[in-house]
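Fold description:
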Amino acid sequence: MLTDRQRIEKQKSAPALIRLHHALSRLRSVVTVMNTGAHPDDEQSGLLAFLRFGAGMRVIVGCSTRGEGGQNALGPERGGALGLMRSREMEEAARELDCDIVWLGHGPDDAVHDFGFSKDGDRTFDRWGEERIVERLVRAYRSERPDIVIPTFLDVPGQHGHHRAMTRAAERAIALAANDQAFPEHFAQGLKPWQVAKYYLPAWSGGGDTYDDEVPPPETTLTVRAEGREPATGADYDRIGEWSRYYHASQGMGYWREEPKTEWPLHLLLAAQTGKESSVFENLPVNLSDLAAEADLPATIAQALQDAQKAIDAAIAAFPARQVIILHLVAAAQKIDDICAHAQAAFLEEHAHRLKRKKAEVDHALIEAAAIFDGAELIPPVLSVASEALLKVGFSRQSAQYQTKAEPVLPEHCTAYMGTPSASGQSFDVKAGADAAFSPLYRPFWSALGGNGDFYVRVTAQFSGYQAQAHFDLAEQFALVPAQSVRIEPEAIIVPLDQTAQMQWPVDVTVSGDQWPVRFISDGGWSVVQDKGTATLYAPEKPAAGLFQVKTQIAGRDAVRLTPITYPHIGQVIYREPEVLNILALDLKLPQGAKIGYIGGGADRAGLWLSRMGLDVTKLEPKHLAGDLQQFTTIVVGIFAFGLRQDLAEATARLHAYVENGGHLVTLYHRPTDGWKPAVTPPRHIKIGSPSLRWRVTDPAAPVTLLEPDHKLLNWPNRITAQDWEGWNKERGLYFASQWDEAYQPLLSMHDANEQPLTGALLSARIGKGRHTHTSLVLHHQMDKLVAGAFRLMANLVSGEAE
């Protein structure tokens, strides 16, 4: 349930006059543009802000993955949970741009997902399936009918393989979408061939801190110029783009440029009609009046189209006079209805989607102009099977004169019973039926016009005999979830096989919601026994090395863990995953007497895993950094931490003194932008390579060469062998060091296929009486994935002053 402050913040963030102005500006054009990319945050936000608010186009972002393979600068979410979080960020970013989203990938269990960094489009297609992603793009073209398609990136060496694959697929899908022989299953589903009129490539380089395009961009055939500022907000269009990118907070997005961008060069690669262009609108019908110029159109229909556009123009010109706006919008809507009812079949075949969209936009603008809808809130916003909630739909005082009504649109097997209407709106008692399905985690489409998810509100109002209808999302994200959430702590137990004295471990089992007993299903001789509210994991008589899973069931089904993910910029979403108890049994020796200090920024769980390995770990807070650091044999700095914790940045000199006086400092990878100053942050000079594409190894099975096989960090207390590099997930490492002080020894060499060896993955130096070790290996991720070799190597890295 929203707090009072949250309600105030929501109202403040969307003033009524700006909402009305934006609802009217949608009506200016009948052109649709789709910007394609591979991840949430790939969209070209400043350009899209201009095309939507400056040119009045309908804007769609076509995104292939949920970003589940990326990093998280805000918190511990990884994998599917991060994909859900980044999906919500993309939705809020789209809300700021007033654009729609077509998702081509459906989460980590779908073939089209973010599997981590790729340097080659072909290797990406090996994972996604080229025909699969092309078919999904063809489907998107046919369902949404974009006139213009613009990928964000070029298909060139030096660019992310996901980006390259998406650009190649976007181009291939153009011809196939127009082919009445391609993907005939679409036609049985009501889709029809569609010819994209223009396909542009970006005429700018995708190089920078991350990528390194090896070839120059194509020549510019047209430059989109964003002249002036957006009228309603008075902001530069590129600034509005950054307002949108602000919501990609898990990726550290949102920048304040001193000089907002005003030009975007494009290269027209494919076009239905040729000729030099002066505008992206060239050879396209810009508005309803342009449709009137269609050949062989009856005079009555042509006149109706012109009249409808005149009414729209008059409504826009009347801003902010609400009653005048309503008068003109009703006239426009009625004309559009007449056109849809009487126009020729051939005309409607080509343009009915424009009329339908314009009608929906007019209806939304009418309800906005009447100022009759104040929001819809479900209390609570999360339902379980057979539970109940209260839906409150708020109306303004003037809503009665428009005979305003609200109707909940519910998931299947859910019902709503209307209460007594009041002057402030309507209320409904909502109940989830016993057969209701759980809400999908990853929704395939998001609309700027509302009606998203499996629960929203339809509002209707009468305007001089014309009924307008619009859809509105709930104030908080709705989720229908299981009646029980099972949580096992710890979710994974690390078992060093040489510690045979311990054969049992306490396990905490918590059931939230309806209380039912939990059943455990043994694996490999590992079993959980429950007795009087306690649970204990028992090892088999002779434990074998390997990863084992004790699965759980409750109320006759597989148990799941429900994890709320809550951040101010996205609200709350509920992640759902099977609940299992993982056991990693491995040959793991720990440094005796080690006392570890861990400095995390919330972006990894390295400190947690060190503790679960059986080490003495203290999470270092500001008070610790200001105190006696020499009490710790090793201090570990987590990923991104120098950029996330000001107290850490301020303690750099104290960390250097800690090393000089005999301490062992271990730093996990940082980006150049994470407050990492090569000559200041590490005890001796270490520069992080840029652009980062050149300084990473994306193949998780890439061969690893030990450059110093006798070095103690590779031999004590665990001897690192080829077996420790097996079974790695996603990648070897990233943000490798490119230059370092001669004091550092590079310990490893590795590289992706057909590339030169990189030696900046693991560096270590004797400094004063102590040691600094810096690693760009993704050890934190491998530990999350319970890769045995990562635990063995991490035990060595924190083994104290190693010689």
Summary: The CA atoms of residues 372 and 398 lie 6 Å apart. The two ends are 57 Å apart (CA to CA).
